[in-house]
Automatic annotation (TrEMBL):
Record-linked InterPro entries: DUF2278, Lamin_tail_dom, Lamin_tail_dom_sf
UniProt-listed SUPFAM superfamilies: Lamin A/C globular tail domain
Residue ranges of every copy of the LTD domain listed in the record: 223-328
Family annotation (Pfam families): DUF2278
UniProt xrefs under PROSITE patterns: LTD
Species per Swiss-Prot/TrEMBL record: Streptomyces mangrovisoli
Protein name: LTD domain-containing protein
Length: 340
């Protein structure tokens, strides 16, 4: 079943602790929210399933509509409403990052700047040193444990967030944690000028193709030792541009432009563009020649909001081919095409 208590903790980081020798090591973060409540974020740096090294991606200048959706939340723990369109994260449907950017790192290795704990230490310590920086930690909450001191930092009551990683497409005993729109993540907001840094983590045993209702790995698309995200950068057809705010009154003639970056023609029969809550807009059937572009006029099955959103391209089998996101600022100029 999905995580029982998913949400986001918004608080100030005040300290860190590494667990390099543990069987299931974590990078531990001590946080205090605006109410003076202490919390601990336990971030996995090693998988219990092979391959043990986690996949990671860091966006030093993270721009995504989710940051606007989080802007009005108070400090402390926030339970987030289910589904898309709110502040929840989903690695498959939310188009948070380019999957081709994912890399693996060992949990802890001798020497500087060569393991996942080093990477987390670098970014979190920057936030510790900046009094105005806030961490947004997504995952599952535990506590408050009124009679139990925190085992790492010693505060009382025990309070914290774990599962700060992808929480779908699991295999084996971890399938029970699967769900959609409940992925973990770490965002750091540095005000003045407003800048967001994002860190996303996934296990190599997880799948990048999951069921829209359960979050379970789709048949034939699972993870395993080969890596569920292997080949994620091989996207022959990609979303190149979108016209979210055409000139003129509503209903507007919105469109998405695709490009075939591969050396071979690709048959687009049965493909769809999904944007918004509907089933999507069909892509014209037939082959798209190598190097060719195709402008797809969207029907009522897909809408591009002027306040930012996500656009996803699905093949005839319903598997994700490509996905992008755009912000309200990107869509703020009427008649201008957004390029990706």
């Amino acid at each position: 079943m999905p995580l029982k208590s998913y949400g986001v903790l918004i608080a100030k980081a005040v300290g860190v602790r590494r667990e390099g020798a543990a069987q299931t090591p974590h990078f531990q973060i001590h946080l205090i929210d605006e109410h003076g409540t202490h919390h601990r974020a336990a971030v996995n740096v090693k998988s219990q399933q092979a391959p043990s090294d986690l996949l990671y991606v860091v966006a030093e200048d993270f721009r995504h509509p989710v940051t606007d959706r989080l802007a009005g939340l108070p400090g402390g723990w926030n339970t987030l409403p289910p589904g898309p369109g709110g502040g929840r994260l989903d690695f498959v449907r939310g188009n948070l990052f380019d999957p081709a950017a994912l890399r693996s790192l060992p949990p802890d290795a001798a020497g500087p700047d060569n393991d996942l704990a080093d990477l987390l230490d670098l970014h979190v310590r920057r936030a510790v040193a900046d009094d105005s920086a806030l961490l947004y930690v997504f995952g599952e909450r535990w506590g408050p444990e009124a009679a139990v001191r925190d085992k790492i930092f010693g505060f009382l009551p025990g309070n914290g967030v774990h599962d700060v990683h992808m929480n779908q497409g699991n295999s084996g005993t971890f399938e029970g944690d699967d769900g959609v729109w409940q992925d973990g993540g770490l965002l750091i907001r540095f005000p003045g000028p407003d800048r967001w840094v994002a860190v996303f983590l996934a296990f190599q045993s997880q799948s990048r193709h999951t069921d829209d209702a359960t979050g379970h790995a789709l048949g034939g698309a699972g993870g395993g030792a080969g890596g569920g995200w292997s080949g994620a950068g091989d996207r022959p057809v990609r979303i190149a541009a979108a016209l979210a705010d055409p000139v003129g009154p509503a209903p507007e003639a919105e469109s998405v432009t695709l490009i075939n970056a591969s050396p071979d023609a690709v048959d687009l029969t049965g493909w769809r563009i999904v944007a918004g809550p509907g089933d999507g807009s069909p892509v014209p059937a037939g082959p798209l020649a190598a190097g060719a572009a195709l402008r797809v006029a969207l029907t009522d099955g897909a809408r591009l909001g002027n306040h930012g959103g996500e656009i996803t391209l699905l093949d005839a089998g319903g598997l994700k081919v490509d996905g992008v996101s755009y912000t309200a600022r990107d869509a703020s100029r009427e008649g201008w095409t957004i390029t990706f």
